[in-house]
Amino acid sequence: MSLRLRLTLWYSGLLTGALIIFGVIVYLFINWNTYAELREMVKTESEGLVITGTLMLDKLDLNLDRQSRIEGKNIYVQLINYREGKYRQSTNLFEQNFVIPYPDASPSLQNGFVEVMVELDHKKYRMITYQRPLEINGVLVGLLQVGAIPYNEDQFLIGLRNTLLFSSVIVVLIAFTVGLIIARKALRPIENVINATKQIENGADLSVRIPMPIAKDEIGTLVTTLNMMLSRLEKAYNELDEAYMAQRRFVSDASHELRTPLTTIRGNIDLLDKMWKQTEQQSGAISDQLESVNLSGTHFELSYEAITDISAEAKRMSTLVNDLLALARADAGYVMEKEKVDIHSLTEAVVRRAQLLPREANWEVGDLSELKDVYIRGSEDYLQQLLFVFIENAFKYTPDGDVNFTVRRTEHHIAWIIEDNGIGMNPDQVPHIFDRFYRADVSRGVTVGTGLGLAIAKWILDEHQGSVEVATLEGKGTTFTVWLPIDFS
Hints:
Its EC number is 2.7.13.3. By secondary structure, this protein is an alpha+beta fold.
């Protein structure tokens, strides 16, 4: 839920609560005042009536002088004669043809208001009555009832209640709509902040600045502070970007420039190696040649070892330069040329050539038939390099044990599974093994490598929309599961 909607709901909720309280107070006040006026009128009319009676004749009668005035106010009068068991009614009550319910004669009868239900035209109505016991010489002889049906008052209060409810709903809806508009306008600077930060997050344009609001309030201060921060971020990012671009150019240029002299060095070393071996094979002439150049056998062996070391280091440097060049291409946005690749043939070729790699572990290859008639959209050369990286990695870190290669196929993917029981690593190191130049502590200084192979493999995987799963335990070995999507086109 957005902040704008939450603020509007809070505002509308408070307004609704205030309107409910106000409406209840108004309704209760008008309700009490309306019925209070009606009761007062009934009581006043009751007290103004004159009752005439003769004790000897046991007769009670109404003074009809006020009859017309009473009927005009829709007030009904009923006189009960307990001695005769009869009653006398006002004309309007008699014409309506109903009797106001009255209590039996009892010494406990007192003056006061009583609400009763009367039936008129087959409908029941509430009637407010004021009853007054009549006594002669302390003896209860009758009961005077003056009442009114508050029909108009009830209808007025029902209309008032409905009006209050309807108007409250209308006011709340209007307030909600206006609140949304006001909240949108008030929070527009914050939306500008969000849009600007999204553009920066996407890396589209770091020069974006947040428009300054007109009002000089807290939001204006926030926008000013953020714009200053964005300026500093832009400057720092530009400096880092320039440094990174310079580094990428240096790595790329250095890799290109170093490949030629390294190739020359390796070629000359290989030539010297062949010459030394040929000289060594000519055992009869070695002593004379050594004496002629004043070179002893020990010097010969040391020279040969030096050439061997130079050859190994030159080969290692060539590998490092090639890896750096591959990563430089990746950083430069190199786009691989992809085609439909028969993954079964490719896998067979790689596992066959993998037997020739330097290794001390046993190399076991499982059934590859699941990959028959399966194709992948990608670069054949880079896919071979990808698989070689994981196999060489397993050989390096399995000095004594087994390296097993199996495959798996699902509905949409194939998997290369390279499992070894070598030195393994701590599972906490897994998130970092694809970083450049990263090497696990257990292997650092023990195995030969540049720390770039898995970084290159990760780049190749990303270019082929693939993924890799790593399961490892220090001292127990590692399993890499490489997933690649199948091409059904």
